Amino acid sequence: MTLRPATDEADLLRRHGLQVTAQRLAVLRAVSARPHGTADDLAELVRAEIGAISRQAVYDALGILADKHLIRRIQPAGSPARYEDRVGDNHHHLICRTCGRVVDVDCAVGDTPCLTAAADSGYEIDEAEVVFWGRCPDCRETTNPT
What is the pairing mode between strands 37-38 and 82-84? Predict the structure, then answer.
């Protein structure tokens, strides 16, 4: 994914009622640069960009950005939370059971077929999380050489 110019990121924060800080800008850029990264992965990138920053400050920035729907937090079973900046669509994820690689998967049919639950129990459904599990091509090749 391409990085947005800093002014775009600052404008984005302002439009969502957030104060523009070096930490928030760096976290936004880190999430854009490493989709599906964990907080620790992203903290490394942020430190490389702005220097010292506490783990808690990174978690705080990730939390507020996710609360404002500027980034998306996903937490697959048995995995730490991961973050991405692809928001506003109803895409899903495919995760390799061997190496943990995560890739985006668009809905297979129609606009949002998974938003029609067999029984909604009176809920107004606005999002569905589907996680597909398997083995990525690299791990398949490593465990099943031809």
Answer: antiparallel
Give the SS3 label for residue 1: coil
In the chain, at which residue ranges do the beta strands (DSSP E only) sit? 37-38, 72-74, 82-84, 92-96, 102-105, 131-134
Is beta strand 92-96 parallel, antiparallel or unpaired with respect to 82-84? unpaired
CATH number of 6-74: 1.10.10.10
Q: Which CATH architecture has domain 89-143?
A: 2-Layer Sandwich (3.30)
- Residue that the structure tokens 């999380």 belong to: 129
- Considering the chain, what is the average pLDDT of its residues? 87
For the entire predicted model, the pTM comes to: 0.80
Paired tokens of 107: 């809905």
Question: What's the token pair of residue 116?
Answer: 């029609």
